[in-house]
Structures are given as structure tokens and as C-alpha cells.
Write a structure and sequence with these properties.
heterodimer; A: 809 residues; alpha/beta; Dimethylsulfoxide Reductase, domain 2; Rossmann fold; 4 domains; six-stranded mixed β-sheet; B: 312 residues; alpha+beta; Alpha-Beta Plaits; 11 strands; elongated
């Protein structure tokens, strides 16, 4: 989230799209109901289904799954063509005025630089025009034909309300109402928040979905202000934390990059990341990358990391290609993987195309499941009839189940969607022989290291170099680990005058204290401050909110630097005055930036210096145009899902799906066509369950006991399906059976001249647990990922449906 | 935000009300306490309910109830009806609003309404099986329940269910045990959106006014409070977007009242019966005065002997 859960109460318009907050985030949704009840905020929901959030909405607009970019681009066009944008914000705080170099073009759905055989772009033409002094050229009148603003107007003009209706199936009047409500906030007086989740990410163009939303918010001036923001709703209590600590495939903790094969030395890695400002007087905060990286290496390798050995850079793995979950299972499917350690992971349920997942798991020598509950994955070898129809005798994979404690049985911290790190204390003792994850991993690590010490082996150096100096190496405590993430001074840190600002051994108060000479450590710079010299701030539970704006500055610790709203300098105009009294948040008081939050800015830089509010960017402003930072284009463009009910892309007939989305060669044949599979399917979670866990909890099984399929009354009639009847749903990859929930909440849409039916498939069911047995929903889904994040396309694919003869329940 | 009820202390708290605060006891005559406890109420704002069923689970957990895992029959409602273990249930209705043309998904939390004039209690023939506290809570006392099912017939909302295990009647107690120590009911505590709030009935009515104003500003011109006068009001109330059409909310009673059979049985007939009995006593006494006491004649004795010997 750019903002926080509690900030949503400051919104005047709440737009939920690509998510279903009432269903998947009921406790956070409370702040939507607060905004409505206390501020009179309007809630609008755009979704293929009239869902639980829609039940609370003032306006609902249906959409064809997978066509979000067409819809969102329609809103961009509405704002631009009706000049309903926050002009001063756009001019000063976005790159609208930047001039793009000659040579860039967009034609028939392709940007310049496309290489068809490699399915990649050469992104060199997607950059600014630079002047002789090395700075980007701007035209503050926004009239230059190649300035981003003018390029945008041209790029988006095709997305008329009529086109949106034709592509997305959203009736024109319902679309226009959304656009008008969005426009009502483009003035610095009112704010709109956008709340999204996996309904936007899980597409072959997922990252561009979110980017288009960000562009809308920037055009309206809704970033950096209370009640605004683009807010990602995270699906697990600690999924924000797990992303932060670098379980992303190409990252190390704190969103720093894992070394690549093309970066053989530390300098070659850091050299690519100098991030010089592209305008005068800009902060370009990533210039400090080097300090964070060296502190990370010091934290990892301790005293063994020295300037002479590049702080242990050579012990870091060098990435040849990102090993995301889809790739991991593809490699496993090729028989190249010996063992899999599944820690709190149920891939048979959660990875696309579970038929392939079972086959891949069957090729392992061993599988370890570390989990508090028995997962379907740990039982993948067991025949459960039609729900998991495997030949057990043919599977040689040895499976180990290591029971671990649940969250309530150990100390630790959660980082929520608001980026707020909150400590939790052990509330109960573990059952039976369950152990903490940390203890199992420490035990494994210690034993494996001993084996390497004794017997040697390939790649032993990194293992022996890792600094494991915990009080009890077999039981590192959560307290020690959070301290380590925060970092400390390794020698007395002195300022320019030689005064000691941080004594050796002291915890660092902020990442601003990190140094690149090896005198500090800290394995995750963004968390620095959470466990500073004053102690563990994640434990703070002061429930006071002096400003009344939902800041709660002394509750836990929000990274970075305990900041609750990011980019908050943008809540004031270029002179430092709030855009309006209603949105007063961070402003210049003549001496410094002040307000209820921690400024996202150097607090003493005066407005005259014209330092931009987006300090992480080299430009100092936000990017409507992303240069070469995204794989699939500097602007978004509508592409069909890989399985689409339309034979061609109605907007760019020559390019059907995302031209740079990755498709594994051996998987090309597994896509189905609309001829055999005319119905669009989308998957989602139910509020009654938490992912694949609570199907093992009795009370949750009681309130939602069985897998079902949501279909419209029209489709039910067409197929002869009665409410409550068992139906078979199948794709080109597999099939599932479930009870038909025939509902007015699903409606057929008219798309490009034909009627398109959609069905809804909740994903929480499986063959292990207390709920009725069901096949994994991912037996149906295609293993194609987003071009940037490789997130699988779970939200839009093709199926067919038929009733299963027999008595109706 | 409605000011949440503070978390309880970990120390024992003396109950704020008990048997001395009863105003009604089934099939019994009691003398109510001179002073009524402040009337409490649970307000269920249907317009804020997301149907998450947290209240259902909280009810199961707090009251130690175990419900069976059922099946899906084509709807979101699970279980499919109230049971001896399911004291509260979300009921989902899809309503196509003819005026706005919009679809509305109306989600109502069903359960005991805690009527001010409780039909169940009036119908109950078992002394002390159903009681009403002066704060309005209607509670079943299972030790006294005889499982006759009259409460089911007497309830205008079709709430009590008879257990096949112990043959006793069950329904929501409004968490009388929690309320007695200053807490709100478990369902209210679990509700994430303040669709359920709890307090004195006066506070709840005031809060409902605030909510109704908001709904009216959004075009629900018939938004209103459901506090039906036919049962002298209830201690569980609803805020409805369409208070003029309660039946669209999964058949919520339009104008509930206690069944005339119960009213006749327990109301008019009771007094008529008492009057008749009194009259018989009076007539008998008069007869005694006028005609003298009945005497057993020789012929009567003879007939009685024949009867006992089986010769009649």
C-alpha cells in the first residue's frame, strides 16, 4: 500500500477493482465502511461478479475478466480528453512534461524495438531526450508533441466509452459513471483510493493493470495525499513481510537485486545502479544503493566480509534466469530437481496447472513439507479418486512431513498491507513434536554445514562463510533476527566533524546511518529503525491518533522510517502549501516540512529548490511514462488473455496476447480455444476460508462446506443446469466438479458483438481437510505468467461446463 | 465509528443482573423488581453487513456449539437453516430493485429477536424454562425445558429449534453471560464492519437514526429501523434499506405478532378460564349454602361396591 488501511477512512471515493476487499480483507474493509458512514464517501466496484464488495457499493459496473486495461485506459482517456486532471500536480509531480526521444513509436499494438523470435523488446527508444548537461529535456507548457502528456493523449484516445463497452462488456453508462466519479477527485479537494489485489496481478498483463491504475491516480493528484493511493491488499497476514525479506526470485532483502551472471564483480553490480538524478537538485535516493548493499553483505558474512573480498560478493549466487514458481515447477517437470523443501507452501493447490504439478512432484527424489497442517501437496502421492487420481505405486518420491508451530505458538512479527511491522507474542505452547520453522532451518543448516566441513563439496564456501553467530545457533530468537534486519554500527560512526553519532555495537536508528565502507551492517535497509537504539518499536501498541487522520504514529513501525503515507510531500503544492485545507497533511512551515507523519523528503529542503516529491526516482517526479523499466511497454496497451473468448484482439487485431509474456515452449499446446471452451472462468477466494488452510478447520468447513461454481441464470438455462446441481467444468488441462450456484450476480456480457458467459470458481477447496473433497481448482488454470512478475494468469481463462446427471441436492 | 466496548478485565466481575431482575418467567407468577435495568439492544445494520459469517463462527465458539459440516445446495447460506447448534445464520437474498434497476444483495443475520413481548415465553407451559430479564433479554433455561415445542409455535420469527439429542429447545441467548459482565454479544465482538453494534436500546435507536440518514442520502428513501410494534418492539433490531418491505430480506416478518392461538390460550382464555373457575367456586359455595352439603346416599354406596367388584 502507498497509504495505510486506517487512511482509507479519509477517502471521498473508494474504487475497488481487481480485488474484493469485503470478501478477502473483511477487517480492512471496515475502513471503507467508515469512510462511507462518517464521510459520506462513495464506493464503486468493478468486477466480473457482483461480489460481496459490490453488495456494499453505491455503484457496480460489470467487466469481462481480463479486460481491465481497456477499461482503465478508457478512464485515462476520459480524464485527458475532458481535461479533468489535476493540472498543477501533473505538470510538477509527474513526468508529463518530459520530452521523449525521437524514434519511439507504437503501431498495431507493438512498441518500437520488438523482437518476435525472442518475444522481447529492445527498450532503447523508450527513453527521454537528454540535453548536453545530461539532464532530461522538459516542456512545462506540456505542448511539445513528443512530451509525455501529448504522447499519452494520442496513445489513449482510442479508448472511447464505446470501445470500452465493446471490449470489456461494460455498459457505456455504467462505465461513464465510474469515470465521472474518478474525475470528481482530480482537484486537490477530494481524494480517491484504489484498492486492488490478485484480480489485477494474476494476468499475463498484471503489472500493467496496476500501472494504469497508478497513472489514473497521478492524473487526479491522488498519490501522497490522505485518502488516496494505489493500495495493494495483501492476502496473508505476513505476505508483505515475506516480500520485503526477499523471497522474490531475483531479489535479496529490501528489494535490492540478486547478482546476475552478467555482474561478475561487486562494482559491476553497483555500477549499473548509480541512479544519477535526471533533473537538477533531485534526491534520487537509490544513489544510496551501495550503502544498503554493503550493509547487507556485512550482515550476511560478518567479519568475513571485507573490502578486499568485495564484502563477500563472490559468495552470493549469480542468477542466470529468475526462478519463479512457474519456472521452478517447469524445471522440476523436466526432471532436473532432486528435492523440494515446501515451507508453508501448498503448491499442488496454488500453482497453475496442477496436473503438471503432480507430475513434477512425482519426479522428485524427496519432498519436505514444513507446515502446521497436513497439506494436499504432502499427500500428492495418495489416490483420492477423481479428486487426485494418481497411481501411487508409480510414485517414488519420499515425503517428509515436519510439523511446525502456528503463528500463535511463537514470538515474531507480522508486516501488514500498510507496511506496518507489528510484533506478536507467543500465546500458546506447541502441540506434540511441532517445532518452530527457525529451529528446523537452523538445525538443517548446522548439520549440512558440518557435513561440508567434514567432507567438503561443491559450493561449500558460501555455506561456511555465512555468519551464524546467534546466542544459540540452534535456536536463533525472533528478537535477534529483527535486530539483524535492522542493523547496527560495527565501529564508532562519526559525522564530518569527527563527533561520534553512533557508538560501535549500537543499533542503527535509520537507514540514513548506513555506510558503504563496511562499518555498518543490517540485512534489510527498509526495516532499519524498527529495532533502533531505543528498542523494538514493532512492539508499540499506543492506540492514539493525535491528528485524527488515521496515522497512529506510535502503533508498531511502518517501513520506511515509520512513514504511513508514502510520497507525502505531494500533499502540498510546489510552494509547500497544502492543495486544500481538506487534504492538509505534509507542508512547509517556513523552516521545515511538518505534519502528522514522517515526511517522505529531506525535512529541511525548502520548496524553492524544486526538489521533486518522488525522491526514489531519478527524475524526482512520478512516471506516467516508465522508460525501459517494464518489459511490455512504456505505456500500457490492451492485450487479450492467453485464453480469450475472442478470436482476435478487437483493438490491435495483429497482436492477441501480451507479446512478451513468457510461455514455456513445451506448454504452448495446452492452451484451449474458444471453439471448444467458450466460457470465461475466473478464480477467487471466499471470506469463509483462508486460502487452503481453513478447509482443515471445522467451524470454517461448517459455514462453507463444499466447492461450488457460480453461473448466471442465463447460462444455467442454456445448459439445463438447476440450482444446486453437480456440474462438470473442464479446460484444456483438467476438470473439476462442483455444485451450481445459479445467481443474478453473474450476468452474460456483450463483447465485440457476441454474448460472453463467465463462471466463478472459488479456490479454497481440496482433497485434504474437513470440507467435502474437491479437485484443485488449478487443474484448470494455464501456466502463463505476467511479462514482468511471472504471476500466473489465474483470473481469466477458458472452460466449458455441463450438468452432471443425477439427483439435485 | 460506534465507540467499541472496551476489552474486559482479566479479573472476575460480579454479574450486573440475575434472577432478581426477571420480569417474566414462563408458567409462573413473579414479582418483577421495582427498577428495570436499562434496556439493551443489538442493532444489525444490514446495509453494512458483508455476510462474512464471522458472527456465525463466534457464536459457535463462544457457546461451545458443534455444527455438522453440510453440503452446498446452490446458495451461500450454510447451514441451510437455524438448528439447535446454529443460533444465528446469514441469509442471502438477491433483490432486483424495480425502481433503480440495480441488483442488491441483501444479507440478513437471522436469529432470536428478543421480543419485548415474547411469544415463546407466553406459550411455554414449563415453569421457568423461558425467562425474560428486565433489560429485555429472553433466555431459555434448559434444566426446566420439557421439550414440548410450544415455544416454536409461539415465536413469530420461527427461531427456536428442538434438539433431537436432549429434546430441549435452543436459540440465541444474546450472550446473556457476556452481557451480564459488561460485554457485548460474541457476534458483535467478531463483526469486522460494525454491522452489529450493541448497547442500550436508546443508544441503538440513536445510532440507527444516524445510519438511516446516510442511507437516505444514498437514495434509499424507505430506509428505516425494524423494531416491530406487534411484539412491543425487539431487543435485536435491524437497519433496513427498504424498511417498507421486510419480506425481501429472506422473508423477515412484515408485521410480526404473537400467534392468536397463543394469545387466546395465554391471554384472553387464561382470564376467561380463571373467571369461569372462580364462578364455579362461587356457585358451588352458594349451592352449599342453599342446598346444603352433598351426601352419599345408600344407593350410591351400593353402586360403588358393584363397580369395585366388577359386577356393574
Amino acid at each position: 500500500m502507498t497509504n495505510s488501511w486506517t487512511d482509507i477512512k479519509n477517502a471521498d471515493v473508494v474504487w475497488i477493482m481487481g480485488g474484493n476487499a469485503a470478501e478477502a480483507h473483511p477487517c480492512g474493509f471496515k475502513w471503507v465502511t467508515e469512510a462511507k458512514a462518517e464521510r459520506g464517501a462513495k464506493l464503486m466496484v468493478v468486477d466480473p461478479r457482483f461480489n460481496r464488495s459490490a453488495a456494499m457499493a453505491d455503484h457496480y459496473a460489470p467487466i469481462r475478466a481480463g479486460s481491465d486495461i481497456a477499461f482503465l485506459s478508457g478512464v485515462v482517456n476520459y480524464l485527458l480528453s475532458n481535461d479533468k486532471i489535476h493540472k498543477e500536480y501533473v505538470r510538477n509531480y509527474t513526468n508529463a512534461a518530459f520530452v521523449v526521444q525521437e524514434g519511439y513509436g507504437f503501431d498495431e499494438g507493438l512498441f518500437t524495438g520488438y523482437n518476435e523470435s525472442k518475444r522481447t523488446y529492445d527498450r532503447s527508444t523508450w527513453d527521454y531526450e537528454f540535453s548536453a548537461d545530461g539532464f532530461a529535456v522538459r516542456d512545462m507548457t506540456l505542448e511539445h508533441p513528443r512530451c509525455v502528456y501529448q504522447l499519452m493523449k494520442k496513445h489513449f484516445e482510442r479508448y472511447t466509452p464505446e470501445l470500452v463497452e465493446r471490449v470489456s462488456g461494460t455498459p457505456k453508462d455504467k462505465f461513464l459513471k465510474v469515470a465521472e466519479w474518478v474525475a470528481s477527485t482530480a482537484n486537490g479537494e477530494r481524494a480517491m483510493t484504489i484498492m486492488y489485489a490478485l484480480g489485477w496481478t494474476q494476468h499475463s498483463h498484471g503489472a500493467q493493470n496496476i500501472r494504469t491504475a497508478a497513472m489514473i491516480q497521478l492524473l487526479c493528484g491522488n498519490i501522497g495525499i490522505p485518502g488516496g493511493g494505489v493500495n495493494a491488499l495483501r492476502g496473508h497476514s505476513n505476505v508483505q513481510g515475506i516480500t520485503d525479506v526477499g523471497t522474490l526470485t531475483a531479489a535479496i532483502p529490501g528489494y535490492l537485486a540478486l547478482p546476475a551472471e552478467s555482474e561478475p564483480t561487486l562494482e559491476s553490480h553497483l555500477g549499473k545502479r548509480t541512479f544519477k538524478p535526471l533533473l537538477p537538485n533531485q534526491t534520487s535516493y537509490w544513489q544510496n544503493y551501495r550503502k544498503f548493499y554493503v550493509s547487507f553483505l556485512k550482515s550476511y558474512f560478518g567479519a568475513k566480509a571485507t573490502p578486499e573480498n568485495e564484502f563477500g560478493y563472490q559468495w552470493m549466487p549469480k542468477l542466470d534466469t529468475p526462478y519463479d514458481a512457474l519456472r521452478m515447477f517447469d524445471v522440476m517437470h523436466q526432471g532436473k530437481t532432486t528435492g523440494l523443501l515446501c515451507q508453508g507452501f501448498n503448491p499442488l493447490m496454488s500453482i497453475a496447472y496442477s496436473g503438471k504439478t503432480v507430475a513434477a512432484l512425482s519426479k522428485l527424489k524427496f519432498l519436505v513439507s514444513m507446515d502446521p497442517i497436513e497439506t494436499d501437496t504432502a499427500r500428492f502421492w495418495e489416490n483420492h479418486g477423481e479428486y487426485n487420481n494418481v497411481d501411487t505405486a508409480k510414485i517414488q518420491t519420499e515425503v517428509f512431513m515436519l510439523p511446525v508451530t502456528t503463528f500463535a505458538e511463537e514470538d515474531g512479527s507480522f508486516t501488514n498491507s500498510s507496511r506496518c511491522i507489528q510484533w506478536k507474542w507467543q500465546a500458546a505452547d506447541a502441540y506434540f513434536e511441532a517445532r518452530k520453522d527457525i529451529e528446523i532451518l537452523s538445525d538443517l543448516f548446522t548439520r549440512i554445514r558440518k557435513l561440508y566441513e567434514k567432507d567438503g563439496g561443491k559450493g561449500k564456501d558460501p555455506l561456511l562463510a555465512v555468519d551464524w553467530s546467534y546466542k544459540d545457533p540452534m535456536h536463533p530468537s525472533a528478537d535477534e533476527l529483527l535486530k539483524e534486519l535492522n542493523g547496527k554500527a560495527l565501529v564508532d560512526l562519526k559525522d564530518a566533524d569527527g563527533k561520534v553519532v553512533r557508538a560501535a555495537g549500537q543499533q542503527l536508528a535509520s537507514f540514513g546511518e548506513m555506510r558503504d565502507d563496511g562499518s555498518t551492517d543490517g540485512s534489510m535497509w527498509i526495516y532499519t529503525g524498527v529495532y533502533g537504539p531505543t528498542g523494538n518499536l514493532a512492539q508499540r501498541r499506543e492506540n492514539t491518533d493525535p491528528s485524527g487522520l488515521g496515522v497512529f504514529p506510535t502503533w508498531g513501525f511502518a517501513w520506511p522510517a515509520n512513514r504511513r503515507i508514502q510520497y507525502n510531500r505531494a500533499s502540498a503544492d510546489p510552494q509547500g502549501k497544502p492543495w486544500s485545507d481538506k487534504k492538509k497533511y505534509m507542508y512547509w512551515d517556513g523552516q521545515r516540512w511538518t505534519g502528522p507523519d514522517v515526511p517522505d523528503y529531506v525535512p529541511t529542503i525548502p520548496p524553492e529548490r524544486a526538489t521533486g516529491p518522488f525522491i526514489m526516482n531519478q527524475e524526482g517526479v512520478s512516471r506516467l511514462w516508465v522508460r525501459g523499466l517494464m518489459a511490455d511497454g512504456p505505456f500500457p496497451a490492451h492485450y487479450e488473455s492467453f485464453e480469450s473468448p475472442l478470436a482476435a484482439n478487437p483493438i490491435f487485431p495483429k497482436i492477441r496476447g501480451n507479446p512478451v509474456a513468457r510461455v514455456f515452449n513445451n506448454d504452448m499446446e495446452i492452451f484451449g480455444s474458444a471453439k471448444d471452451f467458450p466460457i470465461v472462468a475466473t478464480t477467487y477466494r471466499l471470506v469463509e476460508h483462508f486460502h487452503y488452510w481453513t478447509k482443515s478447520v471445522h467451524a470454517n468447513a461448517v459455514i462453507q462446506p463444499e466447492f461450488f461454481v457460480e453461473i448466471s441464470e442465463e447460462l444455467a438455462k442454456e445448459k439445463g443446469i438447476k440450482p444446486g446441481q453437480l456440474v462438470r467444468v473442464w479446460s484444456n488441462r483438467g476438470q473439476v466438479k462442483g455444485k451450481a450456484v445459479v445467481t443474478k450476480r453473474m450476468i452474460p456480457l456483450k463483447v465485440d458483438g457476441k454474448i460472453v458467459h463467465q463462471v466463478g470458481l472459488p479456490l479454497n477447496f481440496g482433497f485434504i481437510g474437513e470440507t467435502k473433497k474437491a479437485s484443485p481448482i488449478n487443474s484448470l488454470t494455464p501456466p502463463v505468467g505476467d511479462a514482468n512478475s511471472q504471476t500466473p494468469e489465474f483470473k481469466s481463462f477458458l472452460v466449458n461446463i455441463e450438468p452432471v446427471p443425477g439427483p439435485v441436492a | 465509528m460506534f465507540q467499541p466496548i472496551a476489552n474486559p478485565t482479566t479479573k472476575p466481575v460480579a454479574p450486573k443482573f440475575g434472577d432478581k431482575d426477571l420480569i417474566r418467567r414462563s408458567a409462573s407468577n413473579i414479582t418483577p423488581a421495582a427498577q428495570r435495568q436499562p434496556e439493551v439492544a443489538k442493532l444489525i445494520d444490514v446495509s453494512k453487513c458483508i455476510g462474512c459469517k464471522a458472527c456465525q463462527v463466534a457464536c459457535l465458539e463462544w457457546n461451545n456449539l458443534v455444527e455438522e459440516v453440510g453440503i452446498n445446495v446452490g446458495v451461500y447460506d450454510n447451514p441451510h437453516d437455524l438448528t439447535p447448534n446454529t443460533w444465528t445464520l446469514m441469509r442471502y437474498s438477491e433483490y432486483q430493485n424495480p425502481e433503480s434497476g440495480n441488483l442488491e444483495w441483501l444479507i440478513r443475520k437471522d436469529g432470536c429477536m428478543h421480543c419485548e413481548d415474547p411469544g415463546c415465553l407466553k406459550a411455554c407451559p414449563a415453569p421457568g424454562a423461558i425467562v425474560q430479564y428486565s433489560n429485555g433479554i429472553v433466555d431459555f433455561v434448559h434444566d426446566n425445558c420439557i421439550g414440548c415445542g410450544y415455544c416454536v409455535k409461539g415465536c413469530p420469527f420461527n427461531i427456536p429449534r428442538i434438539s433431537k439429542v436432549d429434546n430441549k429447545a435452543y436459540k440465541c441467548s444474546l450472550c446473556v453471560d457476556r452481557v451480564a459482565v459488561g460485554q457485548g454479544p460474541a457476534c458483535q465482538k467478531a463483526c469486522p464492519t460494525q454491522a452489529i453494534v450493541f448497547g442500550t436500546k436508546d443508544e441503538m435507536k440513536k445510532w440507527a437514526d444516524f445510519r438511516i440518514k446516510d442511507l437516505k442520502s444514498r437514495g434509499f428513501k424507505n430506509a428505516g429501523l425494524y423494531d416491530p410494534p406487534g411484539v412491543s418492539g425487539t431487543h435485536v433490531m435491524y437497519v433496513l434499506q427498504h424498511a417498507d418491505k421486510p419480506q425481501i430480506y429472506a422473508n423477515l416478518a412484515n408485521n410480526p405478532s404473537i400467534s392468536p392461538v397463543v394469545e387466546i390460550w395465554k391471554g384472553v382464555t387464561k382470564y376467561a378460564g380463571l373467571a369461569a373457575m372462580g364462578a364455579f367456586v362461587a356457585i358451588g359455595f352458594l349451592h352449599h349454602i342453599i342446598a346444603g352439603p352433598n351426601r352419599v346416599s345408600a344407593e350410591d354406596e351400593k353402586n360403588a361396591e358393584k363397580l369395585t367388584e366388577g359386577k356393574a
